[in-house]
TrEMBL record:
<feature type="domain" description="F-box">
    <location>
        <begin position="111"/>
        <end position="161"/>
    </location>
</feature>
<dbReference type="Pfam" id="PF12937">
    <property type="entry name" value="F-box-like"/>
</dbReference>
<dbReference type="InterPro" id="IPR001810">
    <property type="entry name" value="F-box_dom"/>
</dbReference>
<feature type="region of interest" description="Disordered">
    <location>
        <begin position="87"/>
        <end position="111"/>
    </location>
</feature>
<feature type="compositionally biased region" description="Low complexity">
    <location>
        <begin position="45"/>
        <end position="56"/>
    </location>
</feature>
<protein>
    <submittedName>
        <fullName>F-box domain, cyclin-like domain containing protein</fullName>
    </submittedName>
</protein>
<feature type="region of interest" description="Disordered">
    <location>
        <begin position="28"/>
        <end position="71"/>
    </location>
</feature>
<dbReference type="InterPro" id="IPR036047">
    <property type="entry name" value="F-box-like_dom_sf"/>
</dbReference>
<feature type="compositionally biased region" description="Basic and acidic residues">
    <location>
        <begin position="101"/>
        <end position="111"/>
    </location>
</feature>
Length: 716
């Protein structure tokens, strides 16, 4: 039979492609399975290990995984005996419960001494013997221990153990003592329950396994657009608990800040809600104002915004009042401020704990004994015996610390023989000498610091006893006061004493130096100001005779062109959110007393030879760029730069409620933002000048160009 057309038989079999996919899938599944068995932490399951898994299981798990094992986590061999007892007890209890023989049960129960003890006595024992690490191990031995130890009332047991271990507390934000122990000494990832032996992130208060670190820790400075609008980015950072431990090197503090992704997302959610509320409010407010202005405009009293009443479309004003970079409304602002304050306290606590952990780690490293035998090196022990027995030296056991424990010559090599000893003795004593010297100089520095602290009281007294407010303003900061020769004699010498009589004896000399400082500070300020206005190079002496400048009186210092910028870092006037302070010399000095009163002099100021050559250092300046901007500002405000004061500019801005100043050629985009507060612009300039000067390739910034956005002056 001829067919109508030739047909190709249709195949309903399995396509090869599918088979290949299936094979592939099986291969992957197998690989994942073996990987899972070996514990090489692939994906994070939702496995909850806390409490349910036995210590033995955990030991098994902890044998593998993780690039680096943190020192402190291995601490839990400390109270081995106690742990063994408890484990035995738990095991026996379990098997006894399973077994049926009555007599046997009774016998075992008697043997299980630790578990048989009443809670109070057990806690007493734990209270004086345990380290946080062994408490932690005990808490997962049995249900009873877990319940006993992790109840909130038991925080005191943990607290004492923690204090014994030399760690500071960290209770902010509802963090409990047992959680802290889990953080520092635990072995389990807080999010997925897998083994996590590396040093935890103390700042984020999380112990995380490798894969959880990779998925949950984010750099806060490079958040992309999935984290909401850009203008909220800084607010988001501020609202997030920040870590300075880099995930790759948890024992170092990095400059980059990291956050825990779920935290960041939670905060983003909150901010977006608040921001929307702010926007709604503002739009409503603006709509009302717009309607009013529109009406006024119709009545012929023109106001800048309402000048084109034809353009009344919604988009026109939304655009104008739309938010710019770093701008947000009162709700967001208040939330950020509140949140940052709270987090700052937490971060401070974490910082202290971090330092303590690193310190303990180091100490452990130093006392590390021979890894094979667990004993201190025989060579060192032998040398210690010889040194202590040496009648010609006075080294004590207390001298056998620090470098002595790590010095290669002392610790490495074979035991010194009696023949070798006389020859090696000088070298050994040299090591001890340097240990002692180092300790003595450290002690001296500590004593000096204590004396400096003691001087603060007399400094305050001296300042309060000044006759006029101006004299209290023109007064050195405590940090500078400490550098005076007359003051130095009270804290620097080994045998110096700070007391009433020493202070009284030095007082006249101090007053003299303060008076000298007053002349110098004015002269320095003058140099800064005239250096900008008179085109004189700043390193050139203006005139050796300071009296020649008598004409530059208080009135001169009050001028806008004489305003100076605070150069103490970090100088932030938190109220105005300004990176530094800008104002007249007296205002600046007042500012420094108020904000930087607790400033500590740097080590170089205190101890280098350069510090001793009498060259007072002042902590303010007037960069040429700022001086130029001031002149430009006067022009824009139509003020005479020869007579204008900062108050005149303030008045100008008060008179024109819409006036805003812009630094339109600022090197960074955020600094081009229009500002009502003109001082903010000056501070930005100073900040960028400094940044450019201290950049890897130091450079100058372009002369600042300012633009003023003001309503058109009245036509009358
Ligand atoms: Zn994990
Ligand atoms: Zn300041």
């Amino acid at each position: 039979m001829p067919s109508l057309r030739e047909t190709k038989p249709v195949s309903y079999g399995v396509p090869d492609q599918f088979l290949e996919l299936e094979r592939d899938y099986k291969r992957q599944a197998k690989a994942a399975k073996t990987k899972g068995k070996s514990g090489a932490g692939g994906q994070c399951g939702a496995q909850k290990a806390k409490g349910s898994s036995s210590a033995a299981e955990q030991d098994e798990k902890s044998g593998v995984d993780e690039d680096e094992v943190d020192q402190l986590a291995s601490d839990y061999d400390l109270d081995d005996e106690l742990l063994k007892l408890a484990e035995n007890g738990a095991r026996k209890k379990r098997s006894a419960a399973r077994g049926s023989g009555k007599g046997e049960k009774g016998e075992r129960a008697r043997k299980d001494r630790l578990s048989a003890l009443p809670d109070e006595i057990l806690l007493q024992i734990l209270n004086c013997t345990s380290s946080p690490a062994s408490l932690l191990s005990l808490s997962i031995v049995s249900r009873r221990f877990h319940k006993l130890l992790t109840s909130p009332e038991r925080d005191d047991v943990w607290e004492e153990a923690r204090a014994r271990a030399g760690l500071p507390g960290m209770t902010g934000g509802g963090f409990t003592e047992s959680q802290l122990a889990e953080l520092v000494y635990g072995t389990i990832c807080f999010t997925c329950g897998k083994t996590a032996l590396r040093m935890p992130d103390v700042f984020l208060r999380k112990r995380l396994c490798k894969s959880c670190r990779e998925t949950h820790i984010v750099r806060l400075d490079t958040l992309d657009d999935s984290f909401g609008p850009k203008r909220l980015r800084q607010a988001l950072r501020d609202c997030t608990l920040q870590s300075r431990q880099s995930p790759s090197q948890p024992k170092k503090l990095s400059k980059t800040h990291y956050g825990f992704l779920p935290h960041v997302q939670q905060e983003l959610g909150r901010l977006l809600v608040l921001d929307q509320k702010d926007i709604n409010d503002q739009e409503a407010e603006y709509a009302a104002a717009f309607a009013k202005q529109h009406q006024l405009a119709l009545q012929g009293r023109g106001i800048a915004v309402a000048r084109s009443p034809t353009d009344s479309s919604r988009s026109a004003y939304v655009f104008d009042f739309g938010r710019k970079e770093d701008e947000f409304g009162p709700r967001v602002k208040a939330y950020v401020a509140k949140r940052r304050e709270k987090l700052a306290a937490l971060e401070k606590e974490s910082g202290a704990l971090f330092e303590a952990i690193i310190r303990l780690d180091k100490e452990k490293e130093q006392h590390r004994s021979d890894p094979e035998t667990g004993q201190p090196p025989a060579r060192r022990e032998d040398l210690e015996r010889r040194v202590l027995a040496d009648a010609e030296t006075d080294f004590q056991k207390s001298d056998l610390v620090e470098t002595w424990l790590t010095d290669r010559f002392v610790n490495l090599g074979s035991v010194v023989t009696d023949e070798e000893w006389p020859e090696l003795r000088p070298r050994v004593l040299k090591v001890l000498d340097s240990v002692r010297k180092k300790r003595q100089s450290l002690e001296l520095k500590l004593q000096q610091a204590a004396r400096r602290d003691a001087l603060k009281r007399y400094y305050e007294q001296l300042r309060q006893n000044q006759l006029s407010p101006a004299a209290r303003t023109f007064f050195p900061l405590f940090a500078d006061f400490l550098l005076f020769d007359s003051t130095r004699t009270l804290w620097e010498p080994k045998d110096a004493v700070v007391d009433e009589s020493a202070y009284n004896a030095a007082r006249d000399a101090m007053e003299d130096e303060i008076n000298e400082w007053r002349v110098d500070v004015r002269f320095y300020a003058l140099q800064q100001i005239l250096g900008c206005t008179l085109d004189i190079p700043q390193d050139e002496e203006l005139s050796s005779d300071q009296d020649a400048y008598d004409a530059y009186d208080d009135g001169f210092f009050d001028l806008l062109t004489s305003a100076l910028v605070c150069s103490i870092k970090p100088c932030v006037c938190s109220a105005e959110k300004r990176p530094t302070f800008f104002g007249s010399l007296p205002d600046l000095l007042d500012h420094q007393h108020e904000i930087h009163g607790d400033l500590k002099p740097s080590m170089t100021e205190l101890y280098t030879k350069k510090a001793l050559t009498k060259q007072p250092k002042f902590r303010f300046s007037l960069p040429l760029e700022v001086a130029n901007a001031v002149v430009a500002l006067c022009e824009l405000c139509e003020l005479d730069e020869e007579t204008a004061t900062p108050g005149d500019v303030d008045e100008f801005f008060e008179d024109d409620e819409t006036a805003r100043l812009q630094w339109y050629n600022a090197p960074r985009e955020t600094h081009k933002k229009k500002e009502r507060d003109w001082r903010v612009i000056m501070c930005r300039i100073k900040r960028d000048v400094d940044e450019a000067a201290s950049a890897r390739t130091p450079h100058l910034i372009a002369p600042p160009a300012l633009r003023l956005f003001a309503s058109r002056p009245d036509s009358e």
